[in-house]
Write a structure and sequence with these properties.
heterodimer, A: alpha+beta, Histone, subunit A, two-stranded antiparallel sheet, 3 helices, about 35% helix, B: alpha+beta, Arc Repressor Mutant, subunit A, nine-stranded mixed β-sheet, three-stranded antiparallel β-sheet, 15 helices, 15 strands
Chain lengths: ~100, ~475
């Protein structure tokens, strides 16, 4: 059984800005532990000769040329904003810059 | 300023540079500075459901050019999502590179013969730009932030140095040299004032010989001056704290240019849990040898070498000439100096004219190296004064024709020998006393006659020709 704790689940929930009730915390701790147990089964396999697989497709270097394409219209963009001021999205004040 | 006895600074820098691509990193929106807010945005850079990112090949080329210039290993790399909740990224994550960056393990040599290690130089996308309206601001005391997503998704390379620098001056030298290299690769315009190059400084202090102390990260320094002063302040703050028996807390700090101090933005425990995971919408990037060779071949000589080539033209360089060389290299204008030097023009004068007369002009294409050299050769021969030569260069840069046409239009042609002699004769006749005293040995009066000739000819006479004419008649 995974040793995932209720506190760890609460921490992950906080990082994802999810508000969980006490009973939800219990439920998800047990569910997530099962998922981790399932993933841990992989550990029992001998995979030394297997390349790490990061993507189900074997593709590499999928790129596009550096050519400008039309953007959305200004009106269409601002129509999606919860609130608009000076042609910009107005949101509750945040402090400083992004991390 | 130096630290109290026995203390040493340890500095590492993270430099973000926007890439000069035509479009953003993962979509075809234009990458331009100063456009109307929220006009260069689309479903991809707004993070709308169902949109998919596709990597810009030019951004990869530029990242590889930077890696090559910084002596990095260019390796197979992957993209990750860096998750955080901030309105400047509408997706709620930034696509970045995490454990496998495109460039790793390089170095940059500084002019003081020190080598700064480069841990990595990875690709990531820029965030939108927020403007914060404080309480009591424009809108009835409302506390709001306004977001422009034009910058969201603009390609960046973040260059992370090792903790190898030991003074604010050295950190500034590194940043300055790195900026020159970035400009030389063509990947960046290096415009710190426009935010296209931004620096985070990791600063700690230790007693000499001891292990590294706890570091603080100063975010978003946008000039070399700020970088220098912020590091100085922060190191002094940490030493004072430690000498008082306190401890340095690992945290992110903000530099306030007006106050001249750093202050806490957030402590380490509050952030830095970005839940990185692989970006499932992007596949691995694995440039082959041919791609690497193509990028490498496109890379011209780097600033250190080009600077050395200019320095070699001077017997000894004054500090002002070294500054001029830096300007000339930054702007990539050394071809003018080399052309003038080959034609026998004084290199000091050529450097000065390029660093002053050409540096402020956005487009120098109308001034050929030949016309530049011809103008300076005339200045060297005394046919143009320094002031006149600068005016001629300005006209040539505006595209006002060739050198002789510009000189003629300005009325800068020198008087021919015959008409100059005629002018001098008539001035001698109208000032007989002064002429007699000059002939009697009063050399100071040479200046008197030169002044008269210059006034009469509105500066079109060659001073040296006047003197030799006067001496011949004496």
């Amino acid at each position: 059984m995974s040793d995932l704790t209720r506190d760890e689940v609460a921490h992950v929930a906080r990082l994802a800005r999810l508000r969980l009730t006490e009973s939800e915390l219990d439920l998800f701790t047990s569910q997530l532990a099962q998922v981790l147990d399932h993933a841990a089964d992989m550990g029992s396999l001998d995979l030394v000769d297997v390349e790490p697989t990061a993507h189900p497709f074997g593709l590499i270097n999928v790129v596009r040329d550096d050519v400008v394409r039309p953007s959305l219209s200004h009106d269409a963009v601002l129509a999606m904003a919860p609130d608009v001021e000076d042609g910009r999205f107005a949101v509750p004040r945040i402090m400083g810059e992004a991390p | 300023m130096t630290l109290a006895d026995g203390w040493e600074m340890v500095i590492g820098l993270e430099v973000h540079t926007e890439l000069r691509t035509a479009t953003k990193m993962f979509c075809g929106c234009a990458n331009t500075f100063g456009a109307e807010p929220n006009t260069n945005v689309c479903p991809v850079c707004l993070g709308l459901p169902g949109s998919l990112p596709v990597l810009n090949v030019r951004a990869v080329d530029m990242a590889m050019a930077i890696g090559t210039a910084l002596n990095c290993t260019i390796q197979r790399s992957t993209f990750h999502r860096k998750n955080y909740f901030y309105p400047d990224m509408p997706k709620d994550y930034q696509i970045s590179q995490y454990d496998l960056p495109i460039n790793a393990n390089g170095f940059l040599d500084l002019s003081d013969a020190t080598r700064v290690s480069i841990e990595r130089a990875h690709l990531e996308e820029d965030t939108g730009k927020s403007t914060h309206l404080g309480g009591g601001g424009r809108i009835h005391g409302a506390d709001r932030s306004l977001v422009d997503y034009n910058r969201s998704g603009v390609p960046l390379v973040e260059i992370v140095s090792g903790p190898d620098m030991r003074s604010a001056a050295q950190a500034r030298r590194y940043a300055s040299e790195l900026r020159a290299v970035l400009i030389a690769t063509g990947a960046s315009d290096g415009r710190m004032e426009e935010g296209s190059m931004r620096i985070d400084a990791n600063v700690s202090v230790r007693r000499s010989g001891e292990p590294f102390g706890t570091r603080c990260e100063i975010k978003n320094l946008n000039s070399l001056r700020s970088l220098y002063h912020a590091i100085e302040f922060e190191a002094q703050r940490q030493v004072a704290l430690l000498e008082d028996g306190g401890v340095v807390r690992q945290e992110t700090r903000h530099w306030d240019e007006n106050v001249g101090a750093t202050s806490t933005m957030r402590v380490k425990e509050e952030a830095e849990d970005y839940r990185y995971f692989r970006e499932p919408d992007l596949v691995d990037l694995a440039p082959d040898d041919a791609w690497r060779a193509r990028v490498s071949a496109g890379l011209g000589p780097l600033p250190a070498q080009r600077r050395a080539e200019l320095l070699a033209l001077l017997a000894t360089a004054t500090p002002a000439q070294r500054d001029a060389i830096d300007v000339v290299i930054d702007l990539g204008l050394e071809r003018y100096v080399h052309a003038a030097s080959s034609a026998g023009v004084d290199v000091g004068v050529a450097l000065s004219r390029v660093a002053n007369e050409l540096a402020g002009v956005d487009d120098v294409s109308r001034l050929s190296t030949g016309a530049f050299t011809e103008t300076l050769a005339m200045e060297t021969r005394g046919e143009l004064s320094a002031t006149q030569a600068k005016a001629v260069l300005a006209d040539l840069l505006r595209g006002d024709g060739d050198v002789s046409a510009v000189v003629a239009a300005r009325g800068f042609e020198q008087l021919s020998g015959a008409s100059l002699a005629e002018t001098i004769t008539s001035l001698i006749e109208s000032n007989p006393d002064e002429w007699r005293r000059y002939c009697a040995g009063d050399d100071k009066l040479a200046q008197f006659f030169i002044g008269l000739v210059m006034r009469e000819t509105r500066g079109r006479a060659n001073g040296r020709a006047v003197v030799s004419d006067l001496e011949a008649r004496r």
